[in-house]
Amino acid sequence: MSPLHIHAEAGDVAPFVLLPGDPNRARLIAETFFEAPRPYTTYRQLLGFSGRYKGLPVSVQATGMGCPSLAIVVEELCQLGVHTLVRVGTAGIIGEGIAPGDLIVASASVPQEGTTRMYLGGDPYAPCASFALTRALADAAGPGVHVGLIQTEDAFYATQPSGVARLRERGVLAVEMEASALFTLGKLRRVETGCVLVASNHIGDPQFVDPDFLRERVLTMTEAALEAGVHLARQKGEL
Ligand SMILES: O=P(O)(O)O[C@H]1O[C@H](CO)[C@@H](O)[C@H]1O
Ligand SMILES: O=c1cc[nH]c(=O)[nH]1
């Protein structure tokens, strides 16, 4: 039976899934990288596509913006039998030395959001990504990648330039809106999770980087995520 929001059956979705927030990015990824891409869900514009990359069965599934939407999508993907979930997102720059377009692999994320709090009944927790997947993402992203702590937030416009120094002092590299709930659900549902991001703006910038440049960097990020999946599948003898 199909879950409530991801209108798909077991077998429609590959065990390895990329998770962009933006549905147009999901389509771009499927059309650019997948052999024989096929859509499996369009409900609420949470677009999902499956195909193959270098022989590896892969899917890309839009999560929408924010942890509540991501959590619905991740729960339902778990019901459909996935084992690895990689967020491929965009993020605002906090860390020194990070430039627009740079890639960031999140090893953990400060859960400045209500979804993780609700799952854990308010208990303190440290949402972190799966180690082997994170290492594979960092290796595939190559020289210049930033690896470390990020922060996940509910309110895009609440973080202002005046708040950057405080987060920077704590070692936060970037802010975005989904990773901590993904990492938390990964632990709760026993699936592997990782996150790679493109730095899309400085905090407080009235605009994101140039759309053509962002598109090019999104494709570079996505290729790294897919290569990490291929690497891990080969390591496990699945490819
Ligand atoms: O580009 P995506 O993956 O949507 O990620 C970032 O962009 C959105 C905000 O513009 C939020 O979802 C944030 O996490
Ligand atoms: O959450 C986000 C995502 C991109 N850029 C930001 O400034 N914040």
TrEMBL record:
Q: Which domain of life is it from?
A: Bacteria
**Entry GO CC:** cytosol
| Transmembrane intervals | none
| GO process annotations (BP) | nucleoside metabolic process
Which SUPFAM superfamilies does this one have?
Purine and uridine phosphorylases (SSF53167)
Q: Quote the EC number.
A: 2.4.2.3
Recorded catalytic activity of this chain's protein: uridine + phosphate = alpha-D-ribose 1-phosphate + uracil
Pfam families named in the record: PNP_UDP_1
> What's one GO MF term for it?
uridine phosphorylase activity
Limits of the Nucleoside phosphorylase domain: 16-207
Q: State what protein this is by name.
A: Uridine phosphorylase
